[in-house]
Amino acid sequence: MSSTPMMFVTLRSPAALPTVEAALQGKGQWTRRLHGAAGQVAGLEIAPHSPPIGRDEILAIDGVADVLRPVSPHPRVDAQAGRTVSLGRAVLGEGCLLMAGPCSVETEAQIHAAAALVARSGARLLRGGAFKPRTSPYAFSGHGTPALQWMREAADAHGLGMVTEVLSEADVESVAAVADLLQIGSRNMQNFALLRAVGRTGRPVLLKRGMAARIEDWLLAGEHLLSAGAEAVIFCERGIQGFDPLTRNLLDLGAVALLKHALHQPVVVDPSHATGRRDLVLPLSRAAVAAGADGLLVEAHPEPSRARSDGPQALDEAGLAALAGGLGLAPVGETP
Ligand code: PEP
Ligand code: MN
Questions:
Q1: Residues 183 and 300 in one domain
Q2: How far away, in angstroms, is 164 Cα from ligand 1 center?
Q3: Residues 47 and 164 in one domain
Q4: 3-state DSSP call for residue 29?
Q5: Running DSSP on this structure, what letter comes out for residue 68?
């Protein structure tokens, strides 16, 4: 599926309306009549989900005066259409890319064990938080800078790339020094000072959707990153706030399909934070890939029952292997 941006077609005279309308509809376009202040037909709007059509093809229709396009508020995001993103040893946009690991980096031994099982599964990037945004100020909030180094060493030891969250402007430099992909968490999606600081690193960024953010706000947050210099923005849908606590969040697969099929953006899904339950991670991963996700960000832990954060949603080794196997992935160093 493809699409053209919304377009407005103006007419040489109101009498041209029926022929222009019929010609556009004959080309498969979805049109809507636009009326002026006095109620007269002023032109036609072409819906953005119409099949692709060139401006010149419309101008060639008898009775068409002009074709206008509104200026996009996120031109740099639009310019990402169809691109792939290089992430150290991996590439996003060439098949399904799996990024997996624990919610938090807890100890040096834990992140090495996690990296080992992540590499065995066929995932290509190790995820894990050194700086953790926690709803309660009394909850474990990560080991900070030392954990970044543990994670880099663990990723390198197993041939993996690394994605980790940047929580504050003060940490941008230390995270950029080790991570292949810098993560902006849901709670920080509209922290514009942080977005600018992360963008200035010139690195690829994983931008999680704010839990109450509209898609347009999410795209504009991406524009902040790109306009500040980010090399690429990968949009990550992780569920928005619904009203039912049984599934932690509400996974918006419509947004994923829109970003991939209509806007052609790099997009991944985090089914772990979307549901809060390990038993739902596999079905929602399948659904995410079917909706067009280029990859998945999944929580996995060597001993989920001992996890210091988000244990109930963490997969164990067998669970991650089953997920990766279903996606047709092979361990690092082997071809599928
Ligand atoms: C995370 O990925 O560790 C995380 C905190 O996720 P989110 O920002 O989506 O809540
Ligand atoms: Mn988590």
A1: yes
A2: 10
A3: no
A4: coil
A5: E
User: Which residues constitute the domain of residue 16?
Assistant: 8-71
206 phi and psi angles, rounded to 5 deg: -95, 115
**3 state DSSP class of 282:** helix
Tell me the per-residue pLDDT of 261-309, one tens digit each, with 9 for 90 and over: 999 999 999 999 999 999 999 999 999 999 999 999 999 999 999 999 9
Same domain, 240 and 168: yes
Q: How many angstroms does the Cα of residue 306 sit away from the middle of ligand 2?
A: 14
Regarding whether 218 and 205 lie in a shared domain, the answer is yes
Residue 237 CB partners (closer than 8 Å, separation 6+): 209, 251, 252, 253, 255, 256, 259, 267, 268, 269, 270, 274, 288, 293
Question: Do 152 and 30 share a structural domain?
Answer: no
The answer as to whether 3 is a domain residue is no
How far is the centre of ligand 1, averaged over its atoms, from the C-alpha of 217 (Å)?
18
* H helix or E strand, kind and range, residue 176: helix 172-178
Mutate to test the pocket of ligand 1, among 208, 251, 308 (most ligand atoms within 8 A of CB): 208
Can you give the pTM of this predicted structure?
0.93
Please check whether residue 268 lies inside any domain of the structure.
Answer: yes
